[in-house]
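Support reply, case 0932

Customer input (verbatim):
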Amino acid sequence: MSPKNEGVVAGFKAFLMRGNVIDLAVAVVIGAAFTNIVNSVVKGVINPLVGAFGTKDLESYRSCLKGPCVVDDAGNVVSGIPIMWGLVLSAVLSFLITAAVVYFLMVLPMAKYLARRAAHDKAKQGVQETLEISELEVLKEIRDLLAARRGPDSGNGDGPDTATGTGPGTGSGGSSTGTGTHPTP
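Our regenerated output:
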């Protein structure tokens, strides 16, 4: 196999292994099976119920567009142009039932679940932000306590105190050696 073909095969394999493709395949299979169930319900239950108000099954309702419509025993049109509006009505009912079941049993519960999950995630994020703010406040308090413990003559806190004096004197932050006498308070 050439390197080009190997790349195409690897790409196709990666495409098939994506979660979206597998989810879509499962949805199509489930949808086909579900469509059969809905069609059976419409043909077996709904059509006879609607047909009970008339003389025949819902799918058999038709109107003749042109001429006298003659249908043989097999259901084939011999003459005339029939409009089979019963078949269309049956298909519309199948669609509405399918859409209602999909919406009420799948879409609506999933939307509620996702809304609850989003609210939970938002609340969790709010708690995390509160914890981060609380940690920041605690660190500020620790900083302030350490600064208060050092005392007011500790300088500006930029580094270690290096003022080492050898006697009384005046000065600011440096070493001062004076020869005068100062009264002690």
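We compared this against your earlier run and they match. Two observations from our side: Helices lie at 3-17, 19-51, 85-150. The two ends are 100 Å apart (CA to CA). Please reopen the case if you see a mismatch on your end.
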